[in-house]
Design goal:
about 170 residues; alpha+beta; Chalcone isomerase; six-stranded antiparallel sheet; about 25% helix; globular
């Protein structure tokens, strides 16, 4: 039950923090595709269900929330691997900040990135069927940053269809 409440809080915090940081909801950034893969911010992604929260330790020191479209949610619920074509995962990230009101708690600070994974086995055959997009302030990160995406996923989560995130029950 507590995880469910955390999911709701993070989902709401995701929309609020990203809205405050000026990240687009896919509307204005639609024409801004990631280098290499051509991935864009999906329309309406901030309203998608939460798959799982996460915390990244140093050096990034981030709070994260991974959201998924309908295909992603169905695949996670049924433990389907590989993920089907059409699956889209979006990771929202903020600086991890200590709550000023309650010392043991943390809150999202400044938004850092929005990262997107799109499954299309034919289009992205050379990268395990996944296309990647990393966006900073609604704009695609440079090509050098995108070159690191698949290498990391390939090295560490090849046996989970190149996806780090596990479903939070």
């Amino acid at each position: 039950m507590k995880l469910k409440h955390l999911a709701i809080l993070l989902s709401g915090a995701a929309a609020a923090a990203l809205g405050q940081a000026g990240f687009a909801d896919g509307q204005s950034a639609k024409s801004q595709a990631s280098p290499i893969y051509g991935v864009t911010l999906p329309d309406g992604y901030r309203k998608w269900p939460l798959i799982a929260p996460a915390q990244e330790a140093a050096p990034l020191n981030e709070l994260r929330a991974v959201l998924g479209n309908e295909q992603a949610i169905k695949a996670y619920e049924k433990n389907t691997l590989p993920f089907p074509d059409g699956t889209v995962l979006v990771k929202l990230a903020w600086k991890h900040v200590q709550s000023p009101e309650f010392e043991p708690a943390s809150i999202p600070g400044a938004a850092t990135t929005v990262q997107v994974m799109v499954k299309d086995a034919k289009k992205y055959a050379s990268t395990g069927g996944w296309g990647f997009g990393r966006f900073i302030n609604g704009q695609p990160a440079d090509e050098a940053q995108h070159k690191t995406c698949f290498a990391c996923h390939q090295a560490l989560v090849r046996d989970h269809d190149f996806v780090f995130t596990r479903f939070a029950p």
